[in-house]
Specification:
Structural class: alpha+beta
Radius of gyration: 14 Å
Number of helices: 4
Distance between the termini: 32 Å
Order of helices and strands: HEEEEHEEHH
Number of strands: 6
C-alpha cells in the first residue's frame, strides 16, 4: 500500500480530516477533532492506530507486524508495520476499526457521536 492509496482510503471515511500539527511529514488523521491514525509520509514503513486495550493485545499476539506504538499510550495505540506480511485488507480493516473506536469512545456529545456512526453505517451500541 503506497501513501496515495492509504490517503485515499482514510479520507474516504466520512468526516475524516487530514492534519499536520507537527511538521509536513507527520500526518494525523482525525474524526471530530480526535486522532485515530498517524503516519510519517517520508518513511511509510508503519502507521499508528487507536484501539481498545483487549483488541491491541489480540492484534499483537496474532501479527508480528503489530507492536506497541512508540511515544503513545501503549495500551490504546499500536504501530502497524506496512513492510511485512500483513495483507492490505487487514490494514484497511484496522484503520476502519480505529476510526470507529475513536468515534465510539472519544467523540462527544452523544448526538454528534451517533450522527458520525450513522454516517459510517455503524449501529451505535
Amino acid at each position: 500500500m503506497d501513501i496515495l492509496d492509504l490517503r485515499e482510503y482514510v479520507l474516504s471515511l466520512p468526516c475524516a480530516e487530514e492534519t499536520t500539527p507537527f511538521d509536513d511529514a507527520t500526518i494525523v488523521y482525525k474524526i471530530a477533532g480526535k486522532w485515530f491514525m498517524v503516519v510519517d509520509v517520508e518513511e511509510l514503513s508503519h502507521i499508528v492506530i487507536h484501539h481498545p486495550v483487549e483488541r491491541g493485545i489480540a492484534l499483537r499476539d496474532e501479527w508480528r507486524e503489530i507492536v506497541p506504538a512508540w511515544h503513545f499510550n501503549k495500551r490504546y495505540w499500536s504501530s502497524v508495520r506496512l513492510d511485512g506480511d500483513l495483507p492490505e485488507a487487514v490494514v484497511r480493516e484496522l484503520i476502519r476499526e480505529s476510526y470507529i473506536f475513536t468515534i465510539r469512545h472519544n467523540v462527544t456529545p452523544k448526538a454528534r457521536r451517533e450522527e458520525l456512526l450513522r454516517g459510517a453505517e455503524i449501529v451505535a451500541i
